[in-house]
Each structure stands twice: as C-alpha cells, then as structure tokens.
Task: inverse folding
C-alpha cells in the first residue's frame, strides 16, 4: 500500500524529519490517479518532481499570481495539462502538510498518541492493516485527525472568489467584480463554535458519549459549489496514513530536542518549522 513507503522509511529508529517521506507517499496516490503510474521512492525523477513543487506552489498561491491578467483559457491540450497539474499539485501539498503537523502534535501530546493506540489495539488485530471503514469503530482516532486539521489550519485564507453580481451578505454590500478572500481561520478558531479554539482538543469532535461528531464550523476544505475537489480523497488518505502509522509505531522527539517552534511558517500552506522525530516499532 502507499503508506507502506512511510512505514519503511520510519522503521529504522533513527532521528528523521518526516516531511519528504510523507510527500512521496501522498504524491504517489495522486500519481496513480493522474498518471496511472506509481513511482519508486528511490526514483530520482520523482524526487526532482517533488523538489520542484515547492517554489511552484508558493508562486501559484501568491497574491501576485492571482492578480495577473489572464485571458479566458481555451479548451485545448495545454489547458488540460495545466488542469491535471493543478490536481497533482494541490492533492500532494495539502495532505502531506496536514500529516506533517499531525505527527508533530503526536509527539507534543503523547497522552493523545497513547489513547489513539489503545483504541486501535482494541478494535484492529495487530497483524491487520486498518481500512477506511474502520473509522466508524475508531471515534477517538477520527476525532484526533479532525482536530489536527482544525488546529493546524494549513489554509488560513482560502482561494480568491469573484463576485459575479451585486450581493448583500448580512449588512455588507458586495459589488459585482469584487475579489473576495474567504477567511477559513475565522470559522476553525471561532470561540462561539469551539470550546477551546486555541488549544489542541480532540474533544471538539466527540459528543458526551464519546461518539464522533463533526460541527458545521469545520470547513478546512471550504464549502459550497467551490468546495475542495479532493476532499473525499484527502479524508481517506489522512485516516489511512495516520491510523496505520500509529498502529505500527510510537513517535517521540529526537533525543536532545528541546523547544519545538509550533508557530507556522506562512506561505501557500502554513508549514511547521523543521523538526526531527524517532519512530519506535510497537
């Protein structure tokens, strides 16, 4: 399976930064969807492709890029290639970044990590790989994944939208032609919607009986007609990667690591600062 790449890369027990391993694994899912081909993790061309993505993503998500004069695209091969590349770029960066934050939270909150592993061990046999349907029986694990998404808030400001007609939203008048940047963070960190909006708290996604529940304010994929095209794929990837990794390993910070900077690096997505972890086979 695709997440076996990460399992293999982390199984050596040495300190490592998991970012590139996660990117390779997540990207290979998109590669199969888009190209019909899965790359070896040792493939140099694949590595070059991943390394080229970072500056491209930074430019593509910049204000300068969005404010360029762009003619209406023709429906031709060139446009099709660009659309496919957009799927490839977006489907790799966002999911791998979220998983990167998720592993950081697990080493910062070892009690949460232990509780996830206890739930997994009670539901799934040690020699059995976790499948997506298992999420129904893993409410705490599912809640932790959702809280990682909410708390990391990797896309604080959504993609720009163009108002196509004069519109009233509450008391605000928005004129036709206005460019709007949706503030995703205002929903994910709204104190009216979340008990402890500025704290990592998986309880945000659990009811009083411990069942998984998802509040309406959880909109990391945006919402409406322009909701993220890859939402379902991303949810599947994050559950499978996260649950199988925690079934196989216990994660902790590399020896000698002191303070970890949890403030994000601003960019197309909000990235964690560099950190190293060790993965101990369970």
Result:
């Amino acid at each position: 399976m695709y997440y076996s790449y990460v399992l293999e890369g982390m199984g050596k027990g040495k300190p490592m930064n998991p970012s590139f391993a996660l990117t390779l694994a997540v990207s290979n899912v998109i590669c199969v969807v888009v190209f019909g081909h899965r790359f070896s993790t040792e493939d140099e061309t694949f590595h070059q492709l991943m390394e080229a993505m970072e500056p491209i993503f930074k430019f593509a998500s910049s204000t300068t890029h969005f404010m360029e004069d762009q003619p209406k695209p023709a429906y031709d091969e060139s446009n099709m290639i660009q659309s496919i590349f957009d799927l490839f770029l977006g489907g790799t960066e966002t999911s791998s970044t979220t998983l990167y934050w998720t592993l950081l939270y697990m080493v910062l909150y070892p009690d949460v990590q232990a509780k996830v592993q206890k739930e997994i061990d009670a539901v799934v046999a040690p020699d059995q790989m976790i499948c997506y349907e298992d999420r129904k029986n893993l409410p705490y694990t599912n809640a932790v994944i959702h809280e990682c998404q909410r708390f990391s808030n990797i896309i604080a400001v959504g993609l720009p939208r163009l108002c196509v007609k004069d519109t009233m939203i509450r008391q605000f008048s928005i004129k036709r032609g206005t460019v709007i940047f949706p503030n995703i963070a205002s929903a994910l960190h709204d104190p009216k919607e979340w008990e402890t909006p500025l704290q990592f708290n998986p309880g945000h996604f659990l009811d009083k009986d411990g069942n998984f529940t998802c509040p309406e304010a959880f909109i990391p994929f945006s919402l409406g007609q322009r909701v993220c095209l890859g939402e379902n794929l991303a949810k599947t990837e994050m559950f499978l990667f996260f649950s199988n990794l925690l079934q196989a390993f216990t994660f902790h910070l590399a020896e000698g690591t002191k303070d970890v900077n949890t403030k994000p690096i601003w960019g197309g997505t909000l990235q964690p600062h560099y950190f190293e972890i060790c993965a101990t086979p369970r």
User: Anything to note?
Assistant: Residues 4-153+187-281 form a domain with the Cytochrome p450 fold (CATH 1.10.630.10). Residues 77-108 form the longest helix (32 residues).
